[in-house]
Amino acid sequence: MASLLQSRTPSLSFSSSLCSTPVIRPSVSFLKPRSGPRIPVVRAKIREIFMPALSSTMTEGKIVSWIKSEGDVLSKGESVVVVESDKADMDVETFYDGILAAIVINEGETAPVGAAIGILAETEGEIAEAKAKATSQFSSAPAPSAPKVEESSPAPKVDAPSPPVDAAPAPSTPGKVVATPYAKKLAKQYKVDIGKLVGTGPFGRITPEDVEKAAGITPAPKSNVAAPAAPVASSAPASVPSKAPSNFPEIPGSTVVPFTTMQAAVTKNMLESLSVPTFRVGYPIATDALDALYEKVKPKGVTMTALLAKAAAVALAQHPVVNATCKDGKSFTYNSNINIAVAVAINGGLITPVLQDADKLDLYLLSQKWKELVEKARAKQLQPRTFTLSNLGMFGVDRFDAILPPGQGAIMAVGASKPTVLADKDGFFSIKNKMLVNVTADHRIIYGADLAAFLQTFSKIIENPESLTM
Amino acid sequence: MQSAISLSLSSPSTIARSDCTAAAAANSYICTPRSLRFCGLRREAFKSKSFNSLSVSTRLLPCSRNSSFKKVCAALQSNGAPSKGEFDYDLVIIGAGVGGHGAALHAVEKGLKTAIIEGDVVGGTCVNRGCVPSKALLAVSGRMRELQNEHHMRSFGLQVAAAGYDKQGVADHANNLASKIRSNLTNSMKALGVDILTGTGTILGPQKLKFGKGGSGDTIITAKDIIIATGSVPLVPKGIEVDGKSVITSDHALKLEFVPEWIAIVGSGYIGLEFSDVYTALGSEVTFIEALDQLMPGFDPEIGKLAQRVLINPRKIDHHTGVFASKITPAKDGNPVIIELIDAKTKEPKGTVEVNAALIATGRAPFTQGLGLENINVQTQRGFVPVDERMRVIDSTGKLVPHLYCIGDANGKMMLAHAASAQGISVVEQVSGKDHVLNHLSIPAACFTHPEISMVGLTEPQAREKAEKEGFEVSITKTSFKANTKALAENEGEGIAKLIYRADTGEILGVHIFGLHAADLIHEASNAIAMGTRIQELKFAVHAHPTLSEVLDELFKSAKVVSSSHVAQPVAV
């Protein structure tokens, strides 16, 4: 049989005898890292099957599939295994008649060129011996059998977490194991004994999640690929229970409400934020002057949000790094505009209208824009933002911590302004309104001192707010 | 299971192709080219108009009796002019599927007054319940597959957030496509003046038939020649209860009413394979149940092996081979679908499979009931209408029935939409006085998985068998998509093309392709077989670079033909 995939490449053969010096075949380069003759004379012909070098650049190969299985009788020239190299897949044939005694490297696993991937016995009587050789050789001499690396990582994991599962009695229907195709695949991959699992899927079947759990693997976050049908799955027949998205035990009587698009978007953003190294800096700010100003401008339609946004914008103008973004993990992106997003809770979610050029527009214009902006944001016309302001002060929250949305350098969380007893440096007590602001920032671009300086400026503006009305 | 059935059903035909819904596989280049041809014809009609400066009110009314405008005259004749003989029609076709449609269009071109009888919907299986809607689903599954393959996307430098789909949107796409193609087909026939008669067609005797809803309201018509083109329906083996919800056939599956978590597909031929592609892309897990010992029977073994490595092994699919589904009970009373398996040879029980749904893709059965074949002494063979190589119907005494032909799935020769159409055209050629025998070995077939599989001619074992008998040597050459620039640019290097040929003559015996756009690539080979072009000639044909067609270019170039005496000298222009 010719090689499977490339007509032009001559088909390759492998295997050399343990008792002879390696034979170099014209088209094959054998690299046999053998450390001297371990077995001086072996009468029985037990041969190793090596990972062949299929190209000059090939250092390791992946077993695509074994054409023959253990116990099959091979004749010279027959294809035995399909190997995938960096260039192509190829059938590899044997030069010797014999019996495939043991497969050392399983399908899908990788071995370096020259490593033994199987054992060939000449007669049936030698199969046991060959098998023993396969196991002893490859447990005592780990050097040539590189695939151990792959095996060893999942193996201990399998055993450790499985006892709790094992503790459960054998499946209720003896002798019958119902596992989905993917669950079976995973079980094979992670070497989990599927017979010992108890299925949690519909009709007690073993699901891929069950196997992953037994193997001690937390399902990858991308496992939601199958789930998107959920919002529209209402028409599915009752016989198909909705997918349980996680491993949490189900509490009877609970209802599952799928995320709306907005909620899904929030979830996505929040998860993405986990990849950013953030830190937080808090700062107390006296607000008596700000409160007084607010009383003055309130009749003119100015809101506290606008005041805070304006103050933040003015401070940001002096500390451009806090208004910057780290887009690629390698550089600062300094934004020419100061666009302040303000988090607003709406029924069942969160919107963030953006005040564009908040440092340049005056307070009254900002306030005027505010209302239409909220409507715009509701209609999901998102605008670029460089900084976010989140205020929970109106609910009496004194301090909190905000998550930095992806694509921004910093976010400010503003707590309630409360009367606080203060002692000044002369030892006099006084009562002043104070609020706590807490800024979360991306430490790749904004350092502690940057935030401190920014907050100092911000605090000065709040404590002397007259400039805001100019 | 499917192929076992195909085997028993269609002994005279090429087994590889007898799987019908392969018909499903190959639609697009059937339907579209037809309407294109129609457009061409119409253009000619306009041309003649301007030549004649006659004012004509209807598009296709005769503008000229000038014999130089043959096609236009043809259209004119069929368009209401009484036929010369004593018959109502020159040609009546029973069944308006792709086969009937192809025959009707060609008949008009040949100047025959033509009618077509449709009992269900114009377009037949291909357009309504086969190739066309399945291609819509496969178009979706291909994209889903690509978007879900993060590794693939990342190798392009693309980032895509978790892809999702709206089931109704997908189903609507399939449905809209079917109705669009159906109306295209209907319009093309109407525009050419083919009479579309509604109802069931029944043959009453030689050259005589009736149509209607049955009963006394039927209309009796006569025709000089009659073509049976009634097609096929999904085959449901005994013991299987189809409820249309949890146990379904391709008819139901194409509506995509639900996407089960786990579906068993009974039969791993074209239909089963295509649906496994759709379902796994949409998130289902699939279990194949195949009666033969290996999956994908009917494909060239080598291609099947590779396809299995790409289309089955890495996906959420497992399989039981060598077993029949002896009994399938639909899901009810809170129980899953239960499939009982028995060994295909020993008939011993081989356990049960419990799944959310089962798709029966075991092949297709001819739809020939109620045709009135008994009136002309024709006996069907397992439902198929027996025909000779010219599609002439053979009666129970082995004699030809004059003026009666049968094309498409109903004769079981090759259950593919485009094969039906080709047979129809061949019949029209014959009734208009020109002998014609269709070379079925030149008809390509395709399976629209991702990547696609396509083939024409013989498989390797078939070629070797033929070589044994006729005493020649078979040569084989292969090329890999991994060496093709365009395929690599698309990050789709998986695939091979295989050429089976005679080194002594350069004759192509078969070509099999598995890889990106294989279904579109096969035609260079199928045309070569149809035209009798030899490899030594093809070696000089130029292919644009970089294109996937270079896979075939390389394939032909790598073939070693001993004699090169046949090469036609290229003519310098």
TrEMBL record, chain A:
Residues 139-160 have a biased composition (Low complexity). The keyword Lipid biosynthesis does not apply. Residues 131-176 are annotated as: Disordered. It holds the Pfam family E3_binding. Its cofactor is (R)-lipoate. One of its GO terms (biological process) is pyruvate decarboxylation to acetyl-CoA. Belongs to the 2-oxoacid dehydrogenase family. InterPro entries: 2-oxoA_DH_lipoyl-BS, 2-oxoacid_DH_actylTfrase, Biotin_lipoyl, CAT-like_dom_sf, E2/Pdx1, E3-bd_dom_sf, PSBD, Single_hybrid_motif. One of its GO terms (molecular function) is dihydrolipoyllysine-residue acetyltransferase activity. Keywords: Acyltransferase, Lipoyl, Pyruvate, Transferase, Transit peptide. Residues 46-124 form the Lipoyl-binding domain. Residues 178-215 form the Peripheral subunit-binding (PSBD) domain. Its EC number is 2.3.1.-. This is Dihydrolipoamide acetyltransferase component of pyruvate dehydrogenase complex.
TrEMBL record, chain B:
FAD binds at residues 135, 201, 230-232, 409, 415-418. Keywords: Chloroplast, Disulfide bond, FAD, Flavoprotein, NAD, Nucleotide-binding, Oxidoreductase, Plastid, Redox-active center, Transit peptide. One of its GO terms (cellular component) is chloroplast stroma. Residues 89-424 form the FAD/NAD(P)-binding domain. It holds the Pfam family Pyr_redox_2. It catalyses: N(6)-[(R)-dihydrolipoyl]-L-lysyl-[protein] + NAD(+) = N(6)-[(R)-lipoyl]-L-lysyl-[protein] + NADH + H(+). The keyword Isomerase does not apply. Disulfide bonds join 126-131. Residues 443-554 form the Pyridine nucleotide-disulphide oxidoreductase dimerisation domain. Homodimer. Part of the plastidial pyruvate dehydrogenase complex (PDC) containing multiple copies of three enzymatic components: pyruvate dehydrogenase (E1), dihydrolipoamide acetyltransferase (E2) and lipoamide dehydrogenase (E3). Belongs to the class-I pyridine nucleotide-disulfide oxidoreductase family. This is dihydrolipoyl dehydrogenase. It comes from Olea europaea subsp. europaea.
